[in-house]
């Protein structure tokens, strides 16, 4: 006689079926068959910075993957702004060796689009294609249209995706927060919305012409949402992500504190509204954290002089659950699609037998000192969230237990 299934299991029909079999059997899974728990598939974040090699004083692959596991993630994709930049096989191998030694979850590195991410010549794309998840120059937009066209042609030939940080350098003008009401009120230099969406518009046209798989990083403006919505309607092979902070905060929430500084910046109320609409209607395919740790010193210099970037892996799902699911904006099933199903499908990342166990009734106040990440800067510091990760299971092993 099978055991009573007590835990609530959320996910695809195949995932639910597999978990129900495991919960009723004698396995590591059965210990989590508790009516207080909700079981979800292992999440997948296609946009994280683990800083190693080159900047291990900010984060390492070990600490980054540990904090991912604490947040319910069993797969992450690491951006290439490292030292050395993974623009050839020799440089990439340094990162692969550390991943093999230290990672507690699946870590898939990006390869750079251009040599040293300088935007002047293509990287050795062919030599690294089989060992990377996709090509990106994240942290920098590729300024040359002709070079981006060459990159898309090469990526198409290699059956790889171009993943783009879209930013027009000549429009930045030294800005560091959104060019909006707050910037004008407090005499800060602003980053205009055009700097993001103009390059997205350019890249969409190229991707449509070439037939390249194209993904847009961390969109933040209403114009970006609309451009991608229209491109999808035309059949362009484009997907996009946004991050939790853009769905919760806007420029009106800014404080004179480096933990509110990220790139792209928190935009206007209208932009946040458009992003939420894009999440609901499917224009925005996935939510990624852009987990970007820095040292305490680098984040202690206010809005103007602090480094760009915040951390988010350990609290991403609780943020989405608290602010989008509990408020009725999306369902829990939709949250799982955004955090797991859609990124895995688009980036062809298998979930295997990975799952996470949550107490969704547990509430707490965010205290960055408790993070496993070496980075502590988050605009959610002091915020009340719901959802505590009880355990994360990857390849049949418990990689985090709270």
Characterise this structure.
- By secondary structure, this protein is α/β, with parallel strands linked by helices.
- 34% of the residues lie in helices and 17% in strands.
- It contains 13 helices and 15 strands.
- The protein has helices at 13-23, 61-70, 89-102, 125-128, 145-158, 181-185, 194-210, 222-233, 244-248, 269-281, 302-305, 316-325, 332-347, and strands at residues 8-9, 38-41, 43-48, 73-78, 106-109, 135-136, 162-164, 177-178, 190-191, 214-216, 238-242, 286-287, 355-365, 384-394, 397-401.
- The chain has a 5-stranded mixed sheet with strand order 1-2-13-14-15. Strands 6-7-10-11-12 form a 5-stranded parallel sheet. Strands 3-4-5 form a 3-stranded parallel sheet.
- The longest helix is centred in the middle third of the chain and has 17 residues, at 194-210.
- The chain is globular.
- The relative contact order is 0.15.
- The mean pLDDT is 96.
**Arithmetic mean of pLDDT:** 96
H/E element string?
EHEEHEHEHEHEEHEHEHEHHEHHHEEE
Structural class: alpha/beta
In total, the number of strands is: 15
Report helical residue fraction: 25-40%
Largest sheet: 5 strands, mixed
Number of helices: 13
Separation of the first and last Cα atoms: 31 Å
Radius of gyration: 20 Å
Instruction: Tell me the fraction of residues in β-strands, as a range.
Output: 15-25%
Low-pLDDT ranges: none
As laid out across the biggest beta sheet, the strand order is 1-2-13-14-15
Shape: globular
């Amino acid at each position: 006689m099978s055991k009573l299934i007590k835990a609530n299991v959320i996910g695809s029909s195949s995932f639910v079926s597999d978990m129900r079999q495991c919960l009723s059997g004698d396995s590591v899974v059965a210990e989590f068959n508790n009516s207080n728990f909700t079981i979800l598939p292992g999440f997948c974040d296609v946009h994280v910075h683990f800083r190693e090699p080159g900047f291990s004083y900010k984060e390492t692959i070990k600490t980054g993957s540990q904090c991912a596991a604490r947040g319910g993630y069993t797969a992450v994709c690491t951006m290439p702004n490292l030292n050395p930049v993974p623009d050839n096989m020799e440089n990439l191998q340094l990162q692969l060796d550390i991943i093999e030694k230290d990672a507690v979850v699946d870590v898939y590195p990006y390869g750079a689009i251009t040599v040293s991410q300088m935007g002047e010549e293509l990287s050795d794309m062919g030599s690294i294609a089989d060992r990377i998840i996709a090509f990106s120059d994240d942290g920098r937009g590729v300024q040359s249209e002709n070079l981006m066209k060459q990159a898309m042609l090469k990526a198409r030939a290699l059956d790889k995706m171009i993943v783009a940080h879209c930013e027009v350098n000549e429009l930045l003008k030294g800005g560091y927060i959104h060019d909006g009401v707050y910037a004008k009120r407090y005499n800060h230099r602003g980053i205009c919305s055009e700097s993001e969406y103009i390059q997205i518009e350019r890249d969409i046209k190229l991707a449509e012409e070439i037939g390249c798989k194209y993904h847009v990083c961390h969109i933040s403006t209403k114009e970006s949402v609309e451009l991608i919505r229209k491109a999808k309607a035309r059949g362009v092979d484009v997907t996009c992500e946004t991050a939790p902070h853009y769905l919760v905060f806007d420029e009106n929430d800014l404080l004179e504190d480096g933990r509110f500084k990220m790139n792209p910046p928190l935009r206007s109320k209208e932009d946040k509204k458009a992003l939420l609409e894009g999440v609901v209607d499917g224009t925005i395919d996935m939510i990624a954290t852009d987990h970007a740790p820095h040292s305490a010193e680098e984040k202690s210099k206010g809005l103007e002089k602090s480094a760009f970037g915040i951390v988010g892996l350990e609290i991403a799902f609780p943020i989405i659950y608290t602010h989008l699911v509990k408020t009725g904006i999306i369902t829990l099933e939709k949250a799982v699609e955004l955090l797991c199903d859609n990124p895995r499908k688009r980036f062809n990342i298998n979930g295997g037998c990975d799952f996470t166990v949550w107490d969704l009734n547990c509430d707490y106040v965010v205290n960055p000192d408790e993070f496993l990440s070496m980075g502590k800067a988050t605009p959610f510091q002091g915020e009340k969230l719901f959802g505590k990760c009880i355990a994360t299971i990857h390849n049949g092993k418990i990689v985090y237990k709270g």
